Amino acid sequence: MRELKGILNQFQGVGAHQSATAIAGGHINDTWLMNTTSGRFVLQRINHHVFRDVDGLMANIQLVTQSIRDRLNSLGVEDRDRLVLELIPTHRGEPFAHSTDGGRWRVYRYIEHSRAAGAVPRAADVFQAGLGFGRFVAWLAEVPGDRLVATIPNFHHGPARLAALVDACGRDLAGRAVDVRAEVELVRRREPLLAGPQQALAAGRLPLRVTHNDAKSSNVLLDEQSGEALAVIDLDTVMPGLVLYDFGDLLRTCASSSAEDDPNTEALTLNASAMEAAAEGFLSGAGGVLSGAERESLAIGPAYMALIMATRFLTDYLEGDVYFKTGRPGHNLDRARNQLALTALFEQHHAGLTSLLGG
Ligand code: GN1
Ligand code: MG
């Protein structure tokens, strides 16, 4: 606690420390809600083993939050402060601070009277989460992708993720390859699905935009009272990307009947009203800026993103659980199995998704 207080004191205008509460849930960074005499702040320790270029990462977040603020200004939107995160600079005017143990820390102002959509969100919340992510893409439509640093190169690059899995199998560092032959085969047989988006990009059929890249429904804050979408949070992976990534992640997280790490895949189903609400919300937020081809591409997004996650969880399992935080033995394998089952369900539902999207 004393350490947190000392770190918080490196930032401007944060008042005197009163209390700190850990916010659990993320797989990568560590987060605390800090109560001070000047209000509440979110303090985060950035995992710099995952995000090696913290300068680039923080420059991205500064650019993105400032661009949204400028856009809201030009649109004359009121209540702008609740629609975009505010990064607090250090006393030295820097976007993040260092601690003596080598940690990298940043602070956001906490958005009061807000909540995130629950684990199994209601349709109204899902619509708002979709609206939040759709607007995010639309508000950043004028920012050229090459102004952002690719903080994790090839983050949602299907062929690169598949190659990493095949490599992890070959190296078999944790001696687990023998346990996961069936799962690896389920990924490998879907090579065309993993290759499709990159091919469309290379052929110029889909444009590179600024996308969020971790568009789970819980990463949009909602107003506590009205339930309306406020700011999009967790901006670490905002990078150049395809819009289908964000739409895909949104459905992957809000339309599944089970938690991401639930190994009981027999019971897994898709929630039709959540899919409908997410699609409606996303299109009403982003629809205006999407090309016809982009709109069509969205239907493949949920299966693609579930498969990307299955591939990543499986790779981490094979490498001995070095990337994602795990809470039990086999946790990454449970996650991979869950996401593979979800991939299959979204594949079966492809025609339904296409018609939902007006195709
Ligand atoms: C990680 O830490 P968290 O939960 O926000 C991961 C995402 C995954 C997600 C799966 C930088 O995000 O890509 O979708 O876990 N973030 C990174 O729950 O790898
Ligand atoms: Mg995240």
Automatic annotation (TrEMBL):
Q: Which organism was this protein described from?
A: Posidoniimonas polymericola
Which Pfam families is this protein grouped with?
A: APH
Repeat found in the keyword field: no
Task: Write down the EC number.
Answer: 2.7.1.162
Q: Which gene encodes it?
A: nahK
Where do the Aminoglycoside phosphotransferase domain residues begin and end? Answer: 20-262
EC top class, as a word: transferase
Spell out the InterPro entries in the cross-references: Aminoglycoside_PTrfase, Kinase-like_dom_sf, Pseudomonas-type_ThrB
Q: Which UniProt keywords apply?
A: Kinase, Transferase
Name the SUPFAM superfamilies for this protein: Protein kinase-like (PK-like)
Single GO molecular-function term?
kinase activity
Question: What is the name attached to this protein's record?
Answer: N-acetylhexosamine 1-kinase
